[in-house]
Amino acid sequence: MKEKAAEGVRLDKWLWAARFYKTRAVAREMIEGGKVHYNGQRSKPSKLVELNAVLTLRQGNDERTVNVLAITGQRRPATEATQLYEETAESIAKREKVALARKMNALTMAPPRSPPG
């Protein structure tokens, strides 16, 4: 996998290539909406991604914190895309805890007695 560290890749393009978002347009919307933070700060879609940068991004109810390990602007298979970043251990633990709480909440919620409407 080629690294373009000298040239740099836009943040929206990197997020798309790393398969966090399905299209660059969606990645751009998430960045502009404040759902993606680059090294702890809000950013613009045109920000050039650097190696070892820390990205915090929200996908639905999940929030991930990842370290950038490689830079590419090409969308590759998912197995190769996962080599572009590494999720932090704290992020994984937090996501699992939130998922468990969401699951427990769904199990304890009683169904409505009558249909809505």
UniProtKB/TrEMBL annotation:
- Kindly indicate whether the keyword RNA-binding belongs to this entry: yes
Question: Do you know which InterPro entries this protein is assigned to?
Answer: S4_RNA-bd, S4_RNA-bd_sf
Q: Could you give a GO molecular-function term held by this entry? A: RNA binding
Q: Which domain of life is it from?
A: Bacteria
Q: Which UniProt keywords apply?
A: RNA-binding, Stress response
Instruction: Give every RNA-binding S4 domain span.
Output: 9-70
- What residue ranges are annotated as transmembrane? none
Q: Does the keyword RNA-binding apply?
A: yes
This chain belongs to the protein called Heat shock protein 15
Which organism is the protein's source?
A: Cedecea neteri
Ranked from the top, the taxonomy reads: Bacteria, Pseudomonadati, Pseudomonadota, Gammaproteobacteria, Enterobacterales
- Which gene name does the record give? hslR
